[in-house]
Design brief:
This protein is an alpha+beta fold and about 700 residues long. Helix content is about 15%, strand content about 35%.
């Protein structure tokens, strides 16, 4: 989506929401447009200003400048806010979806609040700071400078500075459902018990009631997808109450069942004051049961479901982490096309819109706080300081409360790749686990380690490992041996693979498999494909591995990387950094995961060949496929257990060769093809193999 189109869409949505709520209940105004930006080091009387529209980051392109040290400092955002006379006797809040990493907010040059953490939202009331009848100045200074008090302390990804998510103005009546409970919706919906015959749903609504002496009532309605009321309740609120608790019964509930049937109810909580509607909050409700068994894996609504999908950063070429709704939709379209049913959102909470897409698409989500260790690099992800620990607790509380009502989220993650060569993080991780269970006893606590020990087995309900056999040393077959060994050592601990992958530059190819150096400049696409074929075959044969998460959905920027012939890029994605080109390995997984009929001829980009007798391979989820080379039928071959159709020792002619594969089944007739050039020794173009 073009940025102008995005602004127009936001304007339309804002007008619709504002008109719908005007004069009665809360209104939302999008504040993404109209900002001036300059770096804080430019403190001249007339600094150089950039007109920007949010979401915005100042690091969208400088991470590829060839410098290891991209700009990590402070920037200042300014805009005016015209006072609306309708705000008289109202309350006005600023809601920031994400400011990376530390934000200081001022209104009319007066300090209002500071928030630490770039990946969770925060909300602050500005009612008393506004000047009626005039334009009011909003100033936000944002810093992504490294700090030992702000997570993440380390990590193989870039920390994009700026107001990289949207900003909203919220206007409510004096008495309202509070937006100030860690920037949550203020409504917490818990499916307490769920079966096919009845569900019990607890609804807690937190309130802000500065005005006393009024009759207050919470009226809550649960509606099904057809907008039919299935449960309702009215509860009187005593003056001075900070919350109201309600419990509902739903007979014969329709369950949220992942991709198969992502059915959603809607919960509307209305606050009435003296029998007049004062505020309303609407939230999704998905009814489901879930657990993980150490022997049989993940179980959703009483049935085994093999969880498989990707890890993913918020990072797109030319935008960094300042993603538009169209970017999130594009990511979800790729996920749905692949056939994935789960996602690990790494290594921090992602924007709220993606969770909404996961709810409606049936994608099961693991989301985590940015307590990120260095993995194989130097440094630490944790120090035993009171400030850092308080910050981690804050982020965990914010993540859980802000995303509490999303039925897609089944796993809260505590950390990624912490090590033990600095302060031991395990006592604090035990504290975090207790906090997560206190905030949300219903969900599963997980973590991602890369240490093949039991060091972290007690700090979470389930555990997962990041493993790269066949890329960072070892061989493809090691993944199966490792999984069996972990299962044998820890038979009662549910285990998963939170990351596995290999790099690939789509411009680099090889005809004969030879292991490249992960740190080198040659990352042939064919090695990535072979890596995933072997690793998936091993993991898929082991149902006790409750989750298999490919690293990663798409290439992403990392300033410390100098490999694959592109500096500053982690190329383990199955889609290119611009999210436009799917690598061969993407289609391999599509052949294994997707139910939509598909056929893909592999190695199209490796179109300059040197071997007159070669192997041709296609991926399909149909039973068999036929290959034609230069119009000649080479033969029909059945699909193997991992979606491959392979024709060995296919003869090519010198010069141009036209390849075509065809397959039919499940009501579909499919074909795919490409052209290969067989070069003689005197005419070989070596550029494609360097």
């Amino acid at each position: 989506m073009k940025r102008k189109s995005f602004i127009a869409l936001i304007a339309c949505l804002t007008t619709f929401i504002s008109n719908a709520f005007a004069g009665t209940i809360r209104s939302y105004e999008n504040l993404d447009a109209g900002w001036n930006f300059h770096f804080s080091y430019d403190c001249r009387k007339k600094p150089v200003l950039q007109q920007v529209t949010l979401p915005h980051t100042w690091n969208a392109t400088d991470v590829f400048s060839g410098q290891l040290q991209y700009y990590r400092g402070a920037g200042i955002y300014n805009r005016s806010l015209a006072y609306n006379p309708a705000w008289k006797d109202k309350r006005v809040f600023l809601y920031f979806e994400g400011a990376n990493s530390v934000a200081d907010v001022l209104v009319n040059n007066k300090f209002v609040t500071e928030h630490k953490g770039g990946y969770t939202a925060f909300c602050t009331e500005i009612t008393s700071y506004l000047i009626p009848g005039s334009d009011n100045a909003l100033t936000v200074q944002v810093s992504n400078a490294p700090s030992m008090e702000v997570l993440p302390l380390s990590g193989d990804f870039n920390v994009f500075g700026g107001l990289h998510r949207s900003v909203w103005l919220i206007v409510t009546n004096k008495n309202c459902i509070t937006p100030l409970d860690y920037a949550s919706p203020g409504v917490y919906i818990t499916p307490a018990t769920v079966s096919t015959t009845q569900a019990t749903v607890d609804v807690q609504t937190k309130l802000s009631l500065p005005l006393s002496g009024h009759k207050l009532e919470a009226r809550t309605v649960i509606r099904d997808a057809a907008n039919k009321t299935v449960a309702s309740m009215q509860t009187l609120i005593n003056n001075g109450d900070s919350a109201v608790q309600q419990q509902f019964k739903i007979d014969n509930p329709h369950l949220w069942n992942g991709r198969q049937d992502p059915y959603l109810y809607q919960v509307s909580v209305q606050l009435y004051q003296d029998d007049q509607l004062a505020d309303e909050m609407v939230q999704p409700l998905g009814l489901r049961t879930f657990k993980v068994d150490a022997s049989t894996g993940f179980i959703l609504n009483g049935k085994h479901l093999d969880l498989h999908g990707f890890g993913m950063h918020e990072d797109v070429k030319d935008r960094g982490s300042a993603l538009l709704p169209s970017d999130h939709k594009g990511e979800m379209a790729l996920i749905m096309e692949s056939g994935a049913n789960a996602m690990r959102l790494t290594h921090y909470p992602h924007g709220n819109y993606f969770y909404q897409l996961a709810d409606t698409s049936g994608i099961i989500v693991w989301t985590e706080i940015p307590l990120v260790g260095p993995g194989g690099y130097t440094g630490t992800g944790f120090i035993n300081s009171p400030a850092l620990k308080a910050h981690a607790r804050q982020l965990l509380t914010e993540m859980i409360r802000q995303q509490y009502n999303h039925p897609s989220i089944l796993f809260w993650g505590l950390f990624n790749e912490l090590k033990l060569n600095y302060d031991d993080p395990r006592p604090f991780l035990t504290d975090l686990q207790a906090l997560a269970k206190k905030e949300d006893p219903s969900r599963i606590i997980t973590c991602a380690t890369f240490l093949d020990t039991d060091y972290f087995n007690t700090v979470s309900d389930v555990i997962a490992w990041n493993k790269y056999y066949g890329w960072y040393g070892g061989s493809f077959s090691d993944i199966g041996t490792w999984a069996d060994d972990m299962h044998r050592q820890f038979p009662t601990k549910p285990i998963a693979v939170s990351e596995y992958g290999a790099g690939a530059n789509i411009l680099q190819h090889q005809e004969t498999m030879k292991a490249p150096s992960a740190d080198g400049n040659f990352h042939p696409e064919e090695w990535q494909t072979a890596y995933h074929e072997a690793n998936w075959a091993a993991l898929n044969a082991r149902p006790f591995v409750w989750g298999k998460f490919v690293w990663a959905l798409a290439d992403f920027s990392s300033a410390i990387r100098t490999e694959g012939n592109v500096d500053g890029l982690n190329d383990k994605g199955l889609v290119t950094y611009d999210h436009k080109i799917k690598k061969d390995a993407f289609y391999f997984y599509k052949a294994n995961w997707s139910k939509e009929p598909m056929l893909y001829l592999a190695e199209k980009r490796a179109n300059e060949r040197t071997m007159a007798s070669t192997t041709v391979k296609a991926y399909t989820n149909l039973t068999k496929a036929t290959l034609y080379v230069n119009g000649k039928n080479i033969g029909t071959v059945s699909r193997d257990s991992i979606g491959r159709v392979i024709w060995p020792q296919v003869a090519l002619q010198a010069g141009k060769n036209t390849l075509l594969v065809k397959a039919a089944g499940n009501g579909a007739t499919l074909e795919d093809g490409c052209t290969w050039i067989l070069n003689t020794p005197a005419t070989i173009n070596h550029s494609s193999t360097k």
